[in-house]
UniProtKB/TrEMBL annotation:
This is Putative sugar-binding domain-containing protein. The lineage of its organism: Bacteria, Bacillati, Bacillota, Clostridia, Eubacteriales. Belongs to the SorC transcriptional regulatory family. The keyword Transcription applies. It holds the Pfam family Sugar-bind. The keyword Transcription regulation applies.
Length: 87
């Protein structure tokens, strides 16, 4: 993934929300770093009226799909190329 701090492929991490790593199904990965993050709890995001995810570039397709599956975001802003890739 190009980020030296990204969890190994064995964890299946494809994206981050509030610093927490999620797998392709939008479920939190069992990454030790998730326990050390000082950020809003992911369950709190599900209680909020509006949570916006923003992304661009077709290389982020799997990440955006994972975020959408997670239920942590309910509004998505993406560019046209990424939208076409996802559809």
């Amino acid at each position: 993934m190009g980020d030296r701090n990204w969890p190994s492929d064995e964890l299946g991490a494809v994206c981050r929300i509030c610093g927490r790593y999620l797998d392709k199904n939008g479920l939190p990965c069992n990454a030790g770093i998730n326990e050390r993050i000082m950020a809003i709890d992911l369950d709190v995001l599900k209680e909020l009226d509006t949570v916006i995810g923003v992304s661009a570039s077709i290389v982020n397709a799997q990440s955006v799909i994972s975020c959408a599956r997670s239920g942590y975001i309910n509004t998505l802003i993406i560019d046209e190329a990424l939208a076409r890739k996802i559809i």
